[in-house]
Amino acid sequence: YHSSWPQDGQSMPPGGGNSTQEDGQLLRAALVALVRNSELEGLRSTIRQVDDRFNRRYGYPYIFLNDEEFTDEFIDQVRAVTKAPVYFGKLPKEHWGLSPYVTEEKVKAALEYNKDRYLYGGSFSYRMMCRFQSGFIHKHPLLQNLDYYWRIEPDVNYFCDIPYDPFKYMRDNNLMYGFTITPMEARKTVETLWNTTRHWMLENPHLLPEKSFMHWVVNEKAKYTLCHFWSNFEIVNLSLYRSEAYESYFNHLDRAGGFFYERWGDAPVHSFAAALLLRKEQIHWFEDIGYHHPGYAHCPNKPEMKSRCVCSPGSDFMYRSMCSRRFSEVGDIYKDQMLELAHM
Ligand code: GDP
Ligand code: MN
């Protein structure tokens, strides 16, 4: 196993090197997670599975980010579970905290009001996490040289061998966004997200593409379908999040305060952006990547896929998911139709 990625202990961020692997060169890509010291065992479990199913044969770097310092034990125990290069980074202060557009008093009142209304309703750190993953993760210095990232999390399961490089699959097929599971969001956490989004659209028509997959998230009657890609798994061409349109969209959302006053998740935010800014052909369901995150699982049932997986078909969510059905049925709409929906 040879790699010209910067070795452990060096601070140079990944992305500049070329590694010779059995499958040729690596792309400028990495597996990335925001994670806490307390999640060490769950993270090691995830890394072990990602390595066994895929990355052992490629050696893409792992990047772990934290709002606090990682402990020596965390770093040692993570490094011990994989041969791939691992980078540990701390978040810049400006990326983790109260948005400048909200007031502490009103946030406190919102947490109190929402604490029993939905999961994490009273959690301040959860909201900072969602805001970070929405607006800042792609700006972290360790990600600056990457073209693609694959988000992972502690305590998830990868059910299937992945005998190819999903990053290269993304590149070769001009894909911008890849997902495995599409649930519906809890409405109470995103009460004003669509309304805020539609104002951004109407104020910034010049940032909208000629056509997009918007209909997946907003139906014929201009109602939010609550469909989203579950972003605890996402493989993304980072130029999506680095685009002028995304930056403008995120800032608009941040100014509206919903990351704190409500509990807007990075999943619905990323999904709105992908649906509004991309065409359907740029978005890919990795149906062959069986996956579980507490709450939902996807267990592939196609004959050519399931022989590579170990999971129980009964655990699958995707073959009965409303948003999955909608994903296959809905097509792109043109900009004038998008603006009409925003206007309704
Ligand atoms: P859920 O998937 O929505 O239930 O939320 P999680 O608790 O799994 O959090 C999502 C991701 O953010 C996971 O990778 C967590 O490890 C990470 N995360 C959540 N809160 C914090 C936090 O306060 N600090 C750090 N460093 N990571 C966090
Ligand atoms: Mn999670």
From TrEMBL:
One of its GO terms (molecular function) is alpha-1,2-mannosyltransferase activity. Belongs to the glycosyltransferase 15 family. It comes from the Eukaryota. This is Alpha-1,2-mannosyltransferase ktr1. One of its GO terms (biological process) is cell wall mannoprotein biosynthetic process. The active site is at 234 (nucleophile). Keywords: Transferase. One of its GO terms (cellular component) is Golgi apparatus. The keyword DNA-binding does not apply. InterPro entries: Glyco_trans_15, Nucleotide-diphossugar_trans. The lineage of its organism: Eukaryota, Fungi, Fungi incertae sedis, Zoopagomycota, Kickxellomycotina. It comes from Coemansia erecta. The keyword Transferase applies.
